[in-house]
Task: inverse folding
């Protein structure tokens, strides 16, 4: 990987085409159940990609495989051209991949600044970790401001509100300066204000970072998504910009079919709004 | 951006970008000025003064305690406090319920015990028990280097550290944790005991190593020896406490707490929890080893029963009673429980075991924060009564997490 990125002129051209994340023919099977059934996917540098799909479509499993939490049964995951399939979680993070979880998991016994500092120190070796933190470095102060938590800097993270915790978690990812951010439902449980702020934050981050967001909130998706990948039963159903995906007959089929099920007391989904034209979500 | 701008409009129509002032209004203004650069909480001088006072009190022990037997007992308690600080590091801060610290305590004690035994017999001679239980004609290879005090002292710390590091690395890398880890350490203590009893020719079996009348070149009966041993223990404890405080305060300490509360989350920050936990476990073992080396000359006997399963559990009781997650709590817990044990055993020797069990149950069930938790609770309540609002986040009491509480219960 390093050779590709460090080669000057030809490499630069090549790098532009090398996707930040490439998933090739990925299969994940749990005791014979294929949660992911041959997914191939590429995410280009600087993209803000939304990953949607009904429950059980394999969205979170896909992110789990990329980050090393779940092992791939078949196929490969390439990060900037390097095969990272099956590497340990903490090594994958050190390549430059950060992820957040559906439920915000910050360290509640530590303060906001300590949480950020811990995240920022991840490349330090053990001897360097044995020293105490003195003050707040710029590397932490800037993201702290970006996530708007300066006022709570010295409070225990356990005392933050749900939305603030989610922001802190995004902040903890930011201080690590990952090339690729994988966010699992970052606006779940947030107030409309907080959603807007988060959406704007994500938009401002795209470009310098590559972001993949798993999301169920369709209004949020329509407002902020650039590219959308729809997963269904472990396969890529559709892929493209919001406009394209909204009009894709395959997507309509799945979601409208599901919507009918819902009316008859079947599967729950808030997704049909995706294909309803001109609805006023709020 | 590919999303149609019109649909972008309908989500945040009428909501202008938020100003910092609006954000403050939403999340509340900070109660205290931002203290990004200063240390948190009360003035650091209060803490420093308390620390200096405690050190003075510690080293004034021989002045305060005239009775030589009592002084020796207090020196012994100080050694237990070292173990407790280590246990707290592993359990209170690291969430590893170590039920086999007796092993490391024992390794340290045997290392020094071997040296002291050889000091009685003189160079090249076999210790008394060996001529009784074994057919060795000369000193076995394992014993030989312990003729040197420096070797025994170094081995007392280094061997426990290495054993714990190897064991920890094997176990933590395989992600064995919680009750499984606790049971594993407990089993280690049992194996260690069996080994000591079984290797009669090398360890003197259940009788243990004893009759140390010469201690580091001075007679046991010499007037200054008690004080000397006390100061050694006090110095050791000071080193242990300073080391533990620095560890806890450092980034590593924060990482250790984070690993305790969310081992899997820490992995996704790019840290390997196996390394973090192994270090804490090994440091705790080293502290227990040092305590063992110092306790051997103080109590004058090194026997397997001191390091078996039961004493290992008592080490957990010390920390639970004092308040885990605080170094001072672990230290005071060890001193208080040990002192109580002496006092109760003196008057009602048969009742101590029951008393200890009761103490443990009561603390776990009703006072999970231990002595320090009680003190902190009343301090905060007092401040609230006086009307001064406590700064939030000035202390970070590592609260018992669900996982570890289950283990204790």
Result:
């Amino acid at each position: 990987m390093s050779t590709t990125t460090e080669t000057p002129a030809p490499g630069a051209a090549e790098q532009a085409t090398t996707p930040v994340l490439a998933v090739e023919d990925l299969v994940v099977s749990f005791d014979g159940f294929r949660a992911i059934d041959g997914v191939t996917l590429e995410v280009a540098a600087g993209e803000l990609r939304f990953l949607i799909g009904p429950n059980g479509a394999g969205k979170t499993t896909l992110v789990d495989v990329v980050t090393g939490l779940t092992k791939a049964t078949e196929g490969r995951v390439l990060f900037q051209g390097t095969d990272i399939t099956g590497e340990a979680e903490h090594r994958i993070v050190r390549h430059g991949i950060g992820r957040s979880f559906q439920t915000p998991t910050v360290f509640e016994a530590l303060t906001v600044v300590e949480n950020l500092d811990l995240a920022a120190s991840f490349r330090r070796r053990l001897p360097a970790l044995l020293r105490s933190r003195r003050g707040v470095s710029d590397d932490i102060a800037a993201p702290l401001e970006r996530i708007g938590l300066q006022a709570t800097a010295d409070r225990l993270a356990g005392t933050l509100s749900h939305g603030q915790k989610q922001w802190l978690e995004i902040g903890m990812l930011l201080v690590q300066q990952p090339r690729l951010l994988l966010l699992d439902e970052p606006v779940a449980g947030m107030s409309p204000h907080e959603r807007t702020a988060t959406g704007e934050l994500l938009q401002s981050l795209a470009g310098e970072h590559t972001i993949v967001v798993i999301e169920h909130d369709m209004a949020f998706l329509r407002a902020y998504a650039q590219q959308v990948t729809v997963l269904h039963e472990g396969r890529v159903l559709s892929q493209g910009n919001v406009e394209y995906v909204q009009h894709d007959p395959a997507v309509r089929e799945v979601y409208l079919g599901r919507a009918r099920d819902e009316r008859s007391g079947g599967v729950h989904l808030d997704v049909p709004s995706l294909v309803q034209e001109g609805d006023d979500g709020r | 951006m590919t999303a149609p701008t019109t649909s972008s409009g309908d989500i945040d129509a009428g909501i202008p970008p938020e100003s910092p002032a609006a954000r403050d209004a939403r999340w509340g203004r900070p109660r205290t000025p931002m203290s990004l650069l200063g240390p948190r909480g009360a003035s650091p001088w209060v803490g420093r003064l308390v620390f200096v006072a405690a050190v003075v009190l510690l080293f004034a022990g021989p002045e305060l305690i005239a009775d030589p037997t009592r002084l020796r007992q207090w020196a012994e308690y100080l050694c237990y406090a070292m173990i407790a600080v280590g246990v707290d590091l592993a359990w209170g801060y690291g969430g590893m319920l170590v039920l086999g610290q007796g092993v490391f305590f024992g390794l340290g004690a045997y290392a020094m015990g071997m040296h002291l035994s050889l000091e009685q017999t003189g160079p090249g001679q076999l210790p008394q028990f060996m001529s009784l239980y074994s057919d060795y004609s000369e000193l076995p290879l394992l014993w030989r280097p312990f003729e040197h005090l420096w070797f025994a002292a170094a081995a007392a710390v280094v061997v426990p550290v290495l054993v714990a590091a190897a064991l920890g690395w094997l176990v933590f890398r395989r992600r064995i944790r919680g009750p499984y880890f606790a049971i594993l350490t407990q089993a280690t203590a049992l194996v260690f005991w069996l080994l000591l009893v079984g290797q009669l020719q090398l360890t003197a079996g259940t009788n243990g190593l004893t009759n140390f009348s010469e201690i580091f070149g001075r007679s046991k009966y010499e007037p200054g020896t008690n004080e000397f041993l006390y100061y050694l223990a006090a110095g050791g404890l000071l080193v242990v406490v300073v080391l533990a405080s620095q560890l806890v305060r450092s980034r590593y300490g924060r990482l250790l707490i984070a690993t305790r509360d969310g081992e899997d989350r820490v992995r996704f920050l790019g840290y390997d929890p196996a390394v973090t936990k192994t270090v804490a476990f090994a440091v705790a073992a080293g502290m227990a080893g040092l305590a063992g080396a110092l306790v051997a000359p103080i109590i004058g006997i090194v026997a397997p029963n001191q390091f078996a399963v039961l004493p290992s559990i008592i080490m957990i009781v010390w920390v639970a009673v004092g308040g885990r997650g605080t170094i001072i709590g672990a230290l005071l817990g060890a001193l208080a429980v040990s002192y109580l044990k002496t006092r109760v055993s003196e008057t009602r020797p048969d009742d101590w075991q029951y008393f200890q069990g009761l103490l443990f149950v009561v603390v776990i069930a009703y006072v999970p924060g231990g002595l320090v938790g009680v003190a902190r609770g009343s301090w905060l309540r007092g401040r609230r009564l006086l009307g001064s609002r406590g700064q939030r986040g000035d202390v970070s009491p590592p609260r018992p997490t669900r996982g570890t509480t289950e283990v204790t219960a």
In short: Chain B touches chain A through 53 residues (CB under 8 Å). The CA atoms of residues 364 and 409 of chain B lie 7 Å apart. The beta strands of chain B are 209-210, 214-215, 218-219, 301-302.
